[in-house]
Amino acid sequence: MPKFKYTAVDANGNNVSDTIFATDITEFNALLKQKQEYVISVKELEDDMQKARSNSSAIGMKDISILCKQFSTMLNSGITIIKSLDVLYRQAEKKKIKDILLKVYEQVQVGKGLSEAMANVEGAFPPFMISMIESGEVSGSLESVMERLAIHYEKQLALRNKVTSAMIYPIILCIVGVGVVFLLFTFVMPNLMGMFDTENLPLITDILFDISNFMQDSWPVLLIGGGVIIFSLLILRRTKAVGNMMDRAKVNMPLIGKLYCIVIASNFCNTMYSVFSSGMSLITALELTSNVMGNKYIEDRLVDVIGEIRTGGALSVALAKTEIFPQMMVTMVSVGEESGALDEILEKTADFYEAEADNAIQKMVSLLEPVMILGLGIIVGIVVVGIMAPIYGMYDNVG
User: Fold this and answer.
1) 151-399: CATH architecture
2) Are the C-beta atoms of 155 and 163 separated by less than 8 Å?
3) pTM check: above 0.85
């Protein structure tokens, strides 16, 4: 979700500077009007996902996870922030990380806060991490916040690695399937053409031979065209309209959509617990959480949730209206709201859906594999039928 940094004048005539999440500039102006602030200047900032894609200086999630864990360990041992940064700088192996930590170290040494120093190294650290650290500095609980960040990024990294590992076999299967089809039409079919009378072929065989001739004559065009299509899809994926459409399709796909929503629920609960338990308000926690969902359609639905809470609605009711999150999660959130222990409920729900996410990933892969095998089998079956039909015709003629 877009984040706007602005300077404004409040109802008392004082200048204020802050950041606010909004879907667009129209909603931004509406939110400022509610706060009785009048904008002087405004700048739209990139969210975490955009920064990760567009900024080559951003530190990777794995390195962020390691940094947070090491930082947490040193702070809990009583080592100062400056000394911790010095240790992290000296032991860093990657030049990019050493340069970033040196810049942060130099700024902290002259009196700036850790979150401010990280924010000044533009694009290096995720805004989510900076906001959490800023909250820890204000509340005096930087050690516990850094520990939560370490756990949060470890879980995020583990989830991403599980998805990546689970998708390796389907991807290999897809590549093998495409290779088999290509070999059938470019090598097997041409060798069979000379066996048959091309003027009296069955329709299916005639179509297969036409496809084979086309692939033989135009394979460079097919390769270039395929590359152009893939590249175009990657570019269009970054646009808001196409990105929303593709992300919405993930949620609404038959069978797989429900499993995908379980993975999203795990991500949501883990992030919400990390933020909300650090002392941030519910709205701020939702704003930061929506910013790291990695799905534009879900981000938009969470904007609706934030809007409803601003008008006095309950979180559980607003989440239920999105029709995205599992009913059990919504019920658990409702219990947390009624008991006044939402952070504890979020932690327990996060643990539950972390295990459910593992099962959901495996189920998604188990659904994809037979579909891909079936698709490949249908193509091979059509080719076999197309080849066998004229062969049986030849036998009939001989008889």
Assistant:
1) Up-down Bundle (1.20)
2) no
3) no
